[in-house]
Design goal:
Largest sheet: none
Distance between the termini: 67 Å
Structural class: mainly alpha
Number of helices: 6
Order of helices and strands: HHHHHH
């Protein structure tokens, strides 16, 4: 096994572990921090696979902007955690069966594909070429996503404001 292959598997394991921890945390701020760790691992994988622009976008957009937005939402809503947040084993069983089936099918598809052992052709694009392609062909999707994030932020602000507060900042 080469050094790149070893690093790939180590980083992939860290991503899976940090994502699993993020999903199982009851404290929401801790879950956001573990999810940021997962996004940083994904950026490392992109860089390792020869896509430094995607690695930078992963850090800037996901680990930076979106996770800060999630963190602000968590802090502003100020939800009181209950002790019974985790699901019962009866609720975990169907999810575990479906997840196991998904992993099994994915592994079978990867290893039974006709070209599974063939090396992939390396494609390179400059950041300018990538930006031109994205903004010429997918500009509407980018605008829709930015609008959805704006609506989510306004909803978080509305929820965080509370019922008894005055728009000027004083109590009603």
């Amino acid at each position: 096994m080469t050094l790149h292959g070893f690093l790939f598997y180590v980083i992939a394991g860290l991503i899976v572990a940090s994502t699993a921890i993020a999903v199982t945390r009851t404290h929401l701020v801790h879950a956001v921090v573990y999810l940021i760790l997962s996004f940083l691992g994904s950026a490392l994988l992109f860089y390792l696979l020869g896509a430094p622009l995607l690695a930078a976008l992963e850090v800037i957009i996901y680990a930076g902007a979106i996770m800060v937005l999630f963190l602000f939402v968590v802090i502003m809503i100020k939800t009181e955690l209950q002790q019974e947040l985790m699901a019962s084993p009866g609720q975990w069983a169907p999810a575990a069966v479906l997840s196991g089936t998904y992993v099994l099918v994915s592994v079978l598809m990867v290893f039974s594909a006709p070209g599974a052992g063939a090396p992939l052709e390396l494609l390179r694009a400059s950041p300018r070429q990538f930006a031109l392609y994205v903004f010429q062909h997918h500009w509407l999707l980018i605008e829709v996503v930015s609008l959805l994030l704006l609506v989510a932020l306004m909803g978080a602000l509305r929820l965080g404001k509370g019922k008894g507060s005055d728009p000027a900042g004083g109590e009603a």
